[in-house]
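User: Second chain of the day. Same drill as before.
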Amino acid sequence: MYRDDMLPPALSKADLHLLYVFCKVVEARGFSAAQITLNVAASTISRQISDLETRLGMRLCQRGRKGFRLTDKGEIVYAASHKLFAAFDQFSETVDGTRGKLVGRLTVAAIDNWVFNNDAPIMGALDEFTRIAPDVSIEMHSLAPDNIEVAVQNGQVALGVGVFHKHKPGLIYETLGFERIGLYCGKGHPLFLADSTAQVEEHLPQANFCKRAYLNEDLIAPVSRNLKSTASAHQIEGVAMMILTDRYIGYLPESFAGIWLREGRMRSIGDGMFDLKSEIKIVRSRGVEPNLVMKTFIDLVRKSAHKNLSKVG
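Assistant: Same format as last time:
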């Protein structure tokens, strides 16, 4: 049994506009900052949010001297709104796709260090995609791996490309290839001058290891299990910064560490004896049928990955 008041209110065009305003306020983290994006006064935005709260029958955010903050219900409405607008985009792009036209929007997230990696599959794919699809609007995000997965789950982005060690439910992962990561130290670290296995084994147990906060280092990097660790970083740039203090060691992608290796400011510990291979994967939401824009980009990523593997082979 159900009652009419159990059903969600039917959304009108005005409601969609209010939800759009709400999303922009959340992303700007407040009414004042959202004025620039929305091109209206803060008082107008405040009234629109109040109208939305009245329409939905719930408090969405706290605002005042302590700043802007979403309520628990506001968090849910924001996530649902993202999915709603993503569905509208998907519909428009699918309709255009039936005409064989590459138009619409492509939202992609990639791990936060690949601009330094010329062999990253997304680089070649973007180059070719922008050539054959000049009318597609591209929105790029550079995020840590776990944030990429969350962005795909909540509909903020359609596709993610990166290194994902623990799969999340509701997502589809496809392996594209791999990237090599190495264990590095800075020029002033005792391990920098360790030229033999015996010297590495002597100094390594005393090393301070900087962890990558977005993954389980003990599982991914066995060498780290018995090492002291008083630092962690949520982005790979943070790991590099800690290594460059000469007081920490840590894992970095080879392509990312290259600049400091060439300058002589870093060294691969044990000349690569602790190197690891990480699988590069593309991730998308399960149950969402890719439209023509997504399919085209996925195919280009696959081709770029295959080309790079052929070069390595």
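The radius of gyration is 24 Å.

User: Great, on to the next one.
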